[in-house]
Amino acid sequence: MCHFMHNVAFQSIGVQCDLLAVPPLKKFAEVCGIEDEPPSNTDTEDADLDASFQMTHDETTTEYVQVHNILSFTFYQHYSDDMEEQLSPTEPASTLDEIKYIVFKSSLMELFKVCTSCHNPCVGELTNPKGTIVTVKQLCSYCSYKRVWNSQPFIKDTPSGNILLSAAILVSGGTPGKFLRMLNYMNVACISERTFYSHQSRYLEPAILSVWNEKQSALLEQCKSCGTSLSIGGDGRADSPGHSAKYGSYGIIDLDTNKIIHVQLVQSNEVKSSNHMEMEGLSRALDFLASNSLKVGTLITDRHKQIASFIRKEHPDVEHRYDVWHVSKGIKKKLLQLAKYKDCEIVSEWIKSITNHLYWCAASTSDGEQMVVRWTSLMSHLCNQHDNCYHSDQSDTDLSDG
Fold it and tell me: Where are the beta strands (DSSP E) in 160-282?
């Protein structure tokens, strides 16, 4: 028999999980080793891509390793209890920590009207636009002084701001079309949507996958070293509401460490219908844990009938419990419906107290029978009878009046 969960606050896991800390991509420059000097050749443009995205095959490999290190550091930051263990005090400050500003062209060019060498009038020229970066060439006609100024550092031939912008859009769960369109409406120089997808497919996604596999292996080893059966929670999400979803993800979280240990993706054409994706995701997740020599002792899910039947038949040794939040949600929905009937309006005044009582029942004991006893005592409370209650003595206030 399934019992609702106790002592654990379990949240649904979305398709895009918040695996990274906020703000994302912490300590970008110090992990990547961004140089202050611009690259030797910044005038070459790729005919097939936006000018802000220019990489050779060798540079692609280097760039991927750098982005992997960025995400790896961020993942460490999210899961580490002590930040000092991950960052030595001798490492340089990050360019991500610097505040960025939106600067108007007219205001920027004011800075290049005077030669920094002889202090005579000078001319600055904007050249080679590459996404978010501004490059100004300055030439003095009096002393022949010249320089090239860049508004941001580079990673190889790619401005760091372009990579940062693509990564920020991805890890924040935003859509590049809307975000870049907003910048275009402001006439702010930015990368193209095609460049974003190039960054995503060639660097960001492989780096995220690599970091996830690395950290997942460490989490699984940590679970194995405990030598006890797992207490896990699971929930599924689909890419669209209703019964026409194409993709669904099922996430598993270790309730002892409060860390996600596995995420399983299911496509609707792999099962009978989209309604079966959640159960299939759980089945694959349990098989994955078993293949890594991990035994599940307690499983906490929502009140999915297919999952309840599946666990009862295929995994009878697993203690299946219901998440108290989902139970509370169902009860609250029924009470709201009951309060709409004539002469039952007073029920609406009891809804908060009833749901609080439900949470107390789940949190006050781990014994399933005791939970039932304490829950059924609710009727005595409603009738203002407290002879066998667990709380302290009540005042003479008539609780039946709400």
Answer: 230-238, 247-254, 259-267
Q: CA–CA distance from 87 to each of 26, 76, 77, 361 (Å)?
A: 11, 10, 9, 44
Q: Which residue pairs from 309-313 have beta carbons closer than 8 angstroms and sit at least 24 positions apart in sequence?
A: 310/279, 310/282, 310/283
Written as six digits, the tokens of 203 are 């660097």
User: Are residues 118 and 140 in contact, defined by beta-carbon separation less than 8 angstroms?
Assistant: yes
Separation between Cα atoms, residue 393 and residue 137, nearest integer Å = 82
pLDDT digits (tens, 9 = 90+) for 229-280: 999 999 998 887 766 788 999 999 999 899 999 999 999 889 888 888 999 9
CA distances from 68 to 15, 161, 262 (A): 21, 17, 20
Distance (Å, rounded) from C-alpha 248 to C-alpha 265?
Answer: 6
Q: Which two tokens stand for residue 362?
A: 């789940």
Helix (H) / strand (E) element for 177: namely: helix 176-185
> What is the DSSP code string of 284-305?
HHHHHHHHTT--EEEEEE---H
* Cis status of the peptide bond prior to 23, with omega within 30 of 0: yes
- What are the C-alpha distances in Å from 73 to residues 20, 91, 205, 237, 393? 10, 13, 16, 28, 54
pTM of the complete model: 0.63
What is each CA distance from 198 to 54, 61, 101, 275, in whole angstroms?
A: 10, 14, 25, 34
Please, what sign has the CA dihedral across residues 96, 97, 98, 103?
positive
Residues 351 and 332: their CA atoms lie apart, in Å, by: 7
